[in-house]
Batch of 2 targets.
Target 1
Amino acid sequence: MTSPTRTTTTTTTTPIGTKRKRSATTLDDDVSPTTASAAKTKPKRASRSNGNQSSHSKQDPPNNETVSAAAAAIQRRLAGSSLPAETPGLDDAIEKLKDLAAASIVNAESNSVLLIGPRSSGKTMVIRKTLAQFPQDKFIAVHLDGLFHTSDQLAVKDIVRQLQMESQIECARPSSVSECLKFVIDTLNSGSKENIPVVFVLEEFDLFALHPKQSLLYTLFDIAQTCVNPVFVIGASQRQDSIELLEKRVKSRFSHRVIFTYPPQDVDDFTVLVRNAITLSPKEDGLLGHEDYCTEFNRRAESLLASSFYKSIAQEIVMGTCDVREMFGLFTSQLLSLSPEQPYLTLDGFKFACVSQLQSPVRDMFNAISPLEQALLVGIKQCLDRHIVPFNFEIVNDFLKDFLKANERSMAALRFKKDVVFKAFESLQAMEFITPIDGSGNRCPKMHKMFKVNLSIGDICDLVMECEDCPEAVQKWCQS
Amino acid sequence: MILKVHVGFMNQLSDTSKNEQPAIHGASGRERQLSQLRNVQRLAGLIASAFVFGPAATGKTAAVQLVFGRRALLTATGPLLCRLCFRRQDGGNPLWPLVAHSDLASLAFACRLLSTPKVVVFDGAEKLRGLAENRVRLVSALLRLPNVTCVFVAALPWRQFQADAEESNQINIYFNAYSYAETRVILERDCPADEDDLAFYLRFVDLTQSVLHRACRDLNELRHIVALLFPKYKDPVIHGKCTKDIKDSKLLYDAVQFYFKEVIDKLYIRKVSSSEWTQASTSGCSLFARANEKRTRKTGISTAKKTSAKLRQQLVGPKPFPIERMLAIFYRIKEDTSSTVDELESLVTFKCK
């Protein structure tokens, strides 16, 4: 039999291109479990068989298409749009969810479960991998995301749309969210003998709990408790207190089953994820005929992963946010620089990516502004020194005027009319070095409008002292 | 194919400068960024978003136009509501129905059904900050759209967007400010068609840069000044007072120096409407009212280091004060300023209500 959802998911075989695994809501239903497990070993084998590849005949150097294909293949893994073969640390969660899902899909029992874990710890991956293990025609999956479905009405509208039941709803004209949902579930099963389980996947579950009255959640959990039709509700959230957000009547209908997911615990686990993502396998990635390129690519990637620089960055991320996507972002940035002249992921490229992604751009911004604006910032620093916070343009201009008066000779180039200085002040505001504070009122003349600065005294000092273009007198003034 | 949406009310008038011919042709120090953007195009749909940023007039918009085409560009202007973003009607584009949805859920659904991934460029992305529907920030939702790569173009670093999408990592593509030499190369391209002596024009460009480099780093403004002043520079030559020869450059400089001074001030002049003038005079009085009330008349202009305690009242600006006080001062200064006084009296009564 063909269910409406199945057709929906098959039309979108191009997986979702968001960076987040959590948001990727379609399933790669053409990947059967056997090919998925075959894919598991491929990247590793490719990286191990470096020595054997030398017997191959000499191949053409990688051209533009090859490099693009390689970049696309890797990015597909980094973005999480293809299911990874290995999921270190998540197998427990997958096993648990699979048991629950089996009860629902195979034995037609209703259930509800909540996945809780920090961001990019693999909640969506768990859901996708679990659901991919069941035959696609045995259940219907409905995907909702708290970021898109900002109200219950929108969510119900989308449920109807995903189930392709707009026409039936038109006839029924249900008046409320719950009525509509119940109607949908009933109609879905009216035609067939056996009941088709419906799996609701709610991403950003906590955002649904913020909807007024929580009527969507209430109805879903209520259906799961009372209805004969099997319904399986899976929520995914980063908030540890998600359950506490639920109203009493909603909470009592929730099964209180919670599965926790954890991010990789140490650098080694972390590196396994990265290695799986950035090594190429000629067969899986459609690079047949370019085995030499893949081998060389993997060899360079291995040496990159073995370098101490990579390890220090990885250590930093593991100790900090433990967000594997931060590392993936660095590699994505590096992929953007791949070209036929530079077709490999190298340590230098990685270092460059780190600089462009991690370094604060404030220094570049400061060096790009005009000397007058720089001098104004030093004037603002003088205000901070004297605890004049907040300050306005008149105060800063007064300091600047005193300074220019004291250094009449050397600083003649910076003497401008007040309008000009005010424009420089406004451009500082546009670059958000300074922001107006609320409460000073819009009716206040703009020269007197109060501002606060977004840099600290030390920041300004560092910026001024390390700027080569900055006049010496300004630097001296900054230190005074 | 590329998605075309207009965010909010695209103001054609204010954006004329952005609609001009892209300033980037060939080499202009932007090769790296262009190749990165081209790779974003190739990986469209797989990358959630790219963040293009850098100071004003560094070729950001021109570069994204060159790579993604004009049709991909959305200009965010003015304060707007989330739902308005996707509502603007724009004829002639078959893809329009895709974005005619009034809510994000429909948009996400439509995007999921796209056969080819798309790139959407949001120019002036700063304006998208703070937009939210039911406490869900627009930017964080846009980052999740399936099959769509969002390219944000902004003058501010991503840090300033953090409140809107705190949990996302961006692929930064930084457009650094043009160096002195790069600016010269770009200005060289602006050489008027009727000018046959390129060396003569370049001498003028050098002169402009050396005069203005301190005050003005904005390429747009420099280009404007060069276009504006070059005829003035040429004037003595046309009148036969000097020649285009390098020997006469001192003479030419003397002739044009006056205009440079003028133009620096003019460049920054903001037209002030008459209403602001009245506001200015009222604020003068209110300042006085405040100062008078607090009896902080002794505003001795000391050259000693200023402390917050000694900060002069004029610098701080007006603070709240009883409006009757100001009225009294008005009466005191001028007895028949009937219109202003009437206005103020009506204000007082209005306030009392």
Note: Chain B touches chain A through 79 residues (CB under 8 Å).
Target 2
Amino acid sequence: MANVSIRAVRKAFGTTQILHGVDVEVEDGEFVILVGPSGCGKSTLLRMIAGLENITRGEIAIGGRVVNDVAPKERDIAMVFQNYALYPHMTVRDNMAFSLKLAKAPKAVLEQKVGRAADILGLGQLLERYPRQLSGGQRQRVAMGRAIVRDPQVFLFDEPLSNLDAKLRVNMRAEIKDLHQRLKTTIIYVTHDQIEAMTMADKIVVMHAGRVEQIGAPLDLYDRPANQFVAGFIGSPAMNFLNGHARGGMFEVNGVRLPLPGGSAGEDGRPIVYGIRPEHWELSDSGVPATVRVTEPTGSETQVMARVGDTPVTCAFRERVMARPGETIHIAPAPHQVHLFDQQTGMRLN
Amino acid sequence: MSTVDSKTVDALNWVAPKRDPGALGRLMDNKMFLVCVCLFPALGLLIVFLTYPLGLGIYLAFTDTQIGHAGEWVGLENFESLFQDRIFLNAVWWTVAYTFFATILKFGLGLWLALLLNHHVPFKSLIRAIILLPYIVPTVLSAIAFWWIYDPQFSIISYVLVDKLHWMEHYIDFLGTPWNARWSLIAANVWRGIPFVAITLLAGLQTISPSLYEAAMLDGASPWQRFRFVTRPLLMPILAIVMTFSVLFTFTDFQLVYAITRGGPINATHLMATLAFQRGIPGSHLGEGAAIAVAMIPFLILATVFSYFALGRRKWQQGSDND
């Protein structure tokens, strides 16, 4: 097990800058998730840690050793690929044993290590099968088994669940988290799915356009997003943003007035973004009127798409709202759950 | 209601009218009829241009037909005399050797080129186009080029080796002595056959996911081990197909040899195909020529059967591909 330090790392393909100076500290045994929309550079960063991409500038250290010029196989890491990258012509057993075979491990060691990994992942019955004869979830497990067999200092996962169906993804999410709790190996995990990030990570690194937007524990990112990008990216359904002005201790947009949190308004007339999560709207007779467009009951909650003035908003209520399209409901934001951002910079104000 | 409104209503209520398909339409819906109609052109062409000539050739092999003289059925007589014929036996031996050496060289060099091109090299598409060049030049044209390259007096190879580099004393007699002529023909065939092998193997290499190499790299495989444990087994299925075709084409080669040496010197470079032509058309013994051609069939069937087993889906190729 080891910590991983990423210091001022930059990456350019020709003249195209992919990463503009990224700093991340991954503690020993931590489960860190790099999350961001596609093209944000998260996979590139992971591949640089693995040694599959050169580091243009900055340095990456694994367990205190700078690995910029260390070959992938000497970095003591294992990687699970998005398409699993199982060798199609090898059985499950041979796939898992391949690295040991190359290292000329004695047969007894090989048997024992493969057996242990198969036990951990429940692959005992499948050892003689070929990858094509496995389901998606089983292939995923073999890919993890291949990583476990090597006892690496760091596990790298590159969007490992994106090829699975929704239900399996939820199961595998729990399995990977459970695996981490048992093995206690450092994991760096890349995904574009913020739910995966929220549910599995000890620490989330939100990336956007080659920069780190915010690093923090899942609930910290949810409760106090540092900027509008993080606020909009974390949480589902996404946060509502209303563009308006502060005036007289209230927020004003198109004649609708909403309360500001704790009087932290900023000066009058300042253009601000008022952010409120769908689940932080409350039904309240004293609230602002909203015209219902669509209601989506999910059973545990009811999502309502409505309009406040001209602005579309999404609300999620724990109670069962029976409003029909076109009806008016009255909603009010929970004031201490409101996030304010600067309209120009997108930075958090409160 | 205004006229505009009633038009709109008409448009919204429009339904596609039901049409009677007619007798021809119903016939076209009949699957058996369609199958027969669609098969007819292909079957017709095959029968006229493939089955008939092949059948006629096999029939002629059992007759003593000559040009201008309708032959009689002689049974196996043609084959019996061929098996006493030194020139024929020599041609059989040489055809097999020619195919064997040319195939080995074509695949060795072709695979090497394909591996090279599969890496990131500058001017990749230009190099690929250049590699295809020998393949798009008509065979006879390239044969004439080789004729000059192998000329006893004007050969560029002799000129460079003797006059420029002073490595040799005398000009090489490429086509005048049997073994020189044989190796020269193999070289010409290899030159011509490499593009096909290189381009098809390159296509095969590109179907191998790069992440397999990355996974192997992380697993600690050296470049040679990545070739041995990833590239080689995954390339095998396509290699077997390309090899089969290459063997068939080389075994039945005619143009190159006939254009460069015409089977000489002293019949040393006659392939079965050139000998069949030589005996059948200029020699006017159609029956004997046909018998030589028919004698190639067992070899070709052997090559096909071999590839049938080599091509058989390997165990790891069975199952679904939904990854």
Note: The mean pLDDT of chain B is 86.
